[in-house]
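Hi R.,

As promised on Friday, here is the backbone we talked about, encoded as structure tokens. Could you run it through your design pipeline when you get a chance and send me back a sequence?
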């Protein structure tokens, strides 16, 4: 397993470099000009100087090299400086947002807590609800519970968040007045009263996102359980006199979790990417909204940095999923 992990890490490095180059080239070829938002009263020579100040006058390969060096070297050093109080990155140029003229990673660090409060919690809640629903639906196939779970999953999987988000706002905020319709990102939790305020404003966006997660993972869990419940090793375990709970929760569940782990692990990077539509509906000032704002403003350093962060997370959690395969099923070996 250790050799496999080392090999995967060695392969991941060129893979990420190729992804970074693809992201950079796609954004370079995309239509739009960062000077488009500059007022028309600004003279052309001033605009040209602004382009040079942003580094747009340099060749593409130089700009790509500077950006990847800043991402992989300067920004980690700056993080170490902030954590350990050192000065390794002192005087080195960081990735700067064209829109705000501030370091991209600082803005991302400010937005991540808001995204994790809502999207992260919704994902955890969705997974915790989906797994037992999928297990029991498979064990009681075609029962009333299974049919009800299938119906709710179809609704949750089919209804887009821009519809369900507006629907819960109309019902629980406008009609009933139970929860606020707009998420207050400036709210700070300091005591129990402020925590209750935070909890109230999180309920609706978490509800919308958790419904989608539950619908997806519960269906995968149910299908995987059904595949394993009819296997020969299950009949053998029952013939040996093992209790039904041991057969289902130990033998069947462990093998059934292998494909589900992939779905759960690959969904984790989406947490950091934020739920773009839901964040727009509830005005959550998170990573998803940051990406939309950066795209609209042609803020290329912000867009390519955020996109590359998502790519890194996908590669990392793919590796984590592969390692978990070997832990869940000893028959899997990476020789």
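Update: got your reply. Pasting your designed sequence below so it's all in one thread:
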């Amino acid at each position: 397993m250790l050799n496999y992990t080392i090999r995967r890490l060695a392969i991941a490095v060129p893979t990420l470099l190729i992804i970074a180059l693809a992201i950079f080239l796609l954004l370079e070829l995309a239509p739009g000009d960062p000077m488009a938002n500059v007022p028309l009263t600004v003279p052309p020579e001033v605009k040209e100087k602004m382009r040079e100040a942003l580094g747009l006058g340099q060749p593409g390969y130089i700009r790509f090299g500077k950006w990847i060096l800043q991402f992989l070297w300067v920004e980690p050093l700056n993080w170490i400086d902030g954590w350990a109080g050192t000065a390794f990155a002192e005087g080195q140029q960081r990735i700067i947002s064209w829109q705000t003229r501030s370091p991209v990673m600082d803005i991302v660090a400010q937005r991540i807590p808001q995204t994790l409060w809502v999207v992260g919690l919704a994902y955890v809640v969705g997974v915790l609800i989906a797994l037992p629903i999928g297990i029991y639906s498979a064990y009681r196939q075609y029962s009333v519970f299974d049919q009800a779970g299938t119906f709710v999953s179809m609704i949750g999987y089919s209804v887009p968040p821009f519809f369900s988000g507006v629907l819960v706002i109309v019902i629980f905020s406008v009609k009933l007045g139970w929860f606020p319709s707009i998420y207050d990102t400036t709210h700070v939790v300091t005591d129990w009263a402020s925590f209750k305020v935070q909890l109230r404003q999180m309920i609706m966006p978490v509800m919308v996102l958790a419904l989608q997660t539950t619908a997806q993972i519960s269906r995968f869990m149910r299908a995987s359980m059904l595949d394993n419940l009819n296997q020969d090793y299950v009949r053998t375990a029952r013939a040996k006199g093992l209790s039904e709970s041991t057969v289902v929760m130990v033998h069947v569940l462990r093998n059934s979790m292998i494909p589900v782990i992939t779905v759960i692990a690959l969904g984790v990077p989406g947490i950091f990417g934020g739920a773009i539509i839901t964040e727009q509906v509830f005005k959550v000032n998170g990573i998803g909204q940051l990406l939309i704002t950066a795209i609209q403003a042609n803020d290329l350093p912000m867009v390519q940095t955020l996109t590359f962060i998502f790519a890194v997370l996908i590669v990392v959690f793919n590796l984590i999923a592969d390692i978990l395969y070997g832990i869940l099923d000893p028959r899997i070996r990476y020789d």
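One thing I noticed while checking it: Residues 106-296 form a domain with the MetI-like fold fold (CATH 1.10.3720.10).

Thanks again,
M.
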